[in-house]
Model the fold of this input.
Amino acid sequence: LSTFDKGVLVVPDQKIPDVINAFRDDPVTAIHISDSYGLILGTSRGKLINYTNGELTVLKESAKRSIEGIYGDLKGDIILFDNGGGCVYNMRTQQMQKIVPASLKDVVIASESKIFIATNLGIYETTRLANNKFDAKLMKGMNQRVYALEYDKESACLYASTANGFFKIDSLGNFTKIRYQNEDIFPTSLY
Done:
């Protein structure tokens, strides 16, 4: 299985019965693993597929565009992906909803109720409310294209790679630009 920007999953012998379909006409472009729901695949034609217990199940027949990334918590029941804006899909209820109007670039799930969403417009600080509702607000001072996010739970700091450089955002919302030898740095991905 080849993916858009997550590497390649090599299957050494396709005659083994647990090998997933080749997806020749609709290649897999994103992969996410969930402890509860197994492997979740996104395809170039926007199909969202679940692979668990040796079976493939289509969760969402056709999204608006290729699914280039699937984000979620290993133990959680929601996944997020871009579908003409940042969308959340609830694996338990099988409901999908758009929660941000901008193109999704990266997601960090900081806790059961706090999600940070990187978009082409900035960072959306998102709160998961009761009844699977979400309140997403654009973070003040971070209204720029954001490429990647990472969250340090120990210090409660968010790190963001943006079009204007690399930033550390503390729990109070204070920004610190991280530079190297007095030069701005632009990481392409954070882990």
